[in-house]
Specification:
This protein has about 775 residues and is α+β, with helices and mostly antiparallel strands. It is built from 21 helices and 33 strands. The longest helix is centred in the middle third of the chain and has 20 residues. InterPro entries: Peptidase_M1_aminopeptidases, Peptidase_M1_dom, Peptidase_M4/M1_CTD_sf.
Length: about 775
Amino acid sequence: MLKPTLLAAGLVALLALPAAAQSTNSGTDKFAQLETLLPTPNTYRTASGAPGNEYWQQRADYNIRVKLDDTNQSISGDEDITYTNLSPDVLTYLWVQLDQNIMDKNSITTATEVGQIQPRMSFQALDYLQRSEFDGGFKIAEVKLKGGKALPYVINHTMMRVDLPTPLRPRQAVTFSIKWAYNINDQTKITQRSGYEYFPEDKNYLYEIAQFYPRMAVYSDNQGWQHKQFLGNGEFALPFGDYRVSITAPADHVVGATGTLQNPNDVLSSAQRQRLEKAKNSTKPVLIVSPLEAEQAEQKRAKGTKTWTYAAKNVRDFAWASSRKFIWDAMGIKQNGTPVMCMSYYPKEGNPLWGKYSTEVVAHTIKTYSKFTIPYAYPVAISVHGPVGGMEYPMICFNGGRPEKDGTYSADRKYGMISVIIHEVGHNFFPMIVNSDERQWTWMDEGLNTFVQYLTEQEWERNYPSKRGEPANIVAYMQTDKSLQTPIMTNSESVLQFGNNAYGKPATGLNILRETIMGRQLFDYAFKEYATRWAYKHPTPADFFRTMEDASGVDLDWFWRGWFYTVDKTDLAIEGVKWYTVDSKNPEIENARKREMINKAPQSISQQRNLQDIKKTLVDDKPELKDFYNSYDPLATTEADKQRYQQLVKGLSPEQQQRLNGGLHFYEVSLKNKGGLTMPIIVQMTYEDGKQEIINIPAEIWRRNNAEVTKVFITEKPVVSFVLDPFLQTADTDLSNNAWPQRAQPSRFELFEQQQRAQPNPMQQQSALQQKEQKPVNGTTSGGTN
């Protein structure tokens, strides 16, 4: 292309002043501060994002006795709750969560759920539609004050109000008891957060049990009682306390649970206790219950029962698992000097994946999360394999990922299993320790946890195939129609595209902050500060936003506003590039340059054809028609031209002379924000000699005009191309407008047979190939003669 030149005097003005167009506003202010959206700071929660000097939270301590009926798949139990009012308020009633009532026949969840009948439906889909036939809600037998006096109560679906006989004043505690029972759901038919799996081959059950007891709701400074109904997505807001739980199960069951086992002599054999002691100092998982022992237990049915008693301090919940099928392994680690027993419980159907990976993944997760947040201080961390695909509780989680019956598995199954264990064990930090309100804001636990999951996956194995975290992986979601999206800052029950919105998008946003906007050093310090400030407390979104800014010194209001409060997308585009060089005023240089450009200029089609068709012009036939201008060369340098140039140079300062003859290249790049989401601009310039340079421009370039800006780049060498976001850092949804000159984006289409056949996984394919190679042919084998 022809490159325009800059007059020497005009160059100074260009560098000294911003272009006039940059001071116009585009009609929206994406850099407005969040002050008007966030709650007013107070003595409970400060403007810095830290807990205030009068911060308080309630406490609930539990003593629970529960019995598992392996014949009828049901649970019965009773509990004593000691509730301590540490608020400045007087309470006349308490709210208790009855989350199991989501399985009640009259559940508000079932009544309000929408669905469609498809021409072809699986039996499982039909089972789910008919789940209202299953009676799985709590049966509350009694609620009593300590001493035996009955307490009045009202059940409102998944919430129960307990009315106190006398007001509970600040710094006072009340102890009351609840007795209950319920039927356990078949998790393979009615998918919930806990349930059982039946194994027809050996006629055994495996139970993963949670939300099994009435639990205190949170009462907080920022919203009072959190008693929003449990509809399924919005998980649980719970106060901290100490637990003592006694679980009575068939005598041949193995029971794993939150906390530490209080009566090992009553429930474990001498050999199992010795193995458990050995595991504390082992660098590899030690089998506490071996596969052989588990298989032997599967074949018998004990008539009696055993009671396993577990205790846990300063936790917000309790869960457990029970089965005679369990293989159990364990390995001890030290986290900041604190011993942590990393353990796994799984049936033989989980091997070889579970025996090889689960406990190692648990240990790796505890170590990595502790590095990025706070040291793990609980005594155990457990991964259980059963029917629940992925669910988390303090010190214990339920995870899927089962190999084929022949023991083979695909890469997706392997990495999916590792990822779900990382994710669910990681939930010990968010929200089990940094205890956000999941009923209101799913992203505060799922999104933050998915982000640290991504970091942990990358430290497990180089180039680990993480599904979430990389900006490129969220592009497809952000390309969807805005009517199919909701802002991240949406209540858990109203979120659309739940996985992308609550898990993927916030995790990606944090990765963009870490890698592109703040840098790892500033981000990691601020993120760790947030975890430290709010460990074992109840943070809100404002506390997170404010802490990240307070600890880093980076104004991120524009980012929270765009990424969390809107459904705008990233689409930055190069609209055009103008290339300038400085007119040196040296007639010899400039005239030669102009002559070169004229000679290189393409001839029009008419000029090309005229050379062939017009053999002679009139002036060729009649030379007398020629005059001065037929021989005049306007690009010939005269002495007068040289003298004028010398006179010009004498009047310039040395710095001006250097600018005049510096040979610099000036590129005016026009940029547009087509997607509406403000982002930094990352520009890759490729020079004529093939070398490249990356320029990172902060998002504040958009502060005066949110829609379009121009940026001048000054280089010593000619630039042959500009590319935005070359390393896919900003989740740009349209890469076709990111390059100048424009590049075609490659894509593919796939041909397939009309009837798709299930393909064996690579391990099965390899096994079949080996068997084929070893098959005797004409009395011989692939290894030689018989």
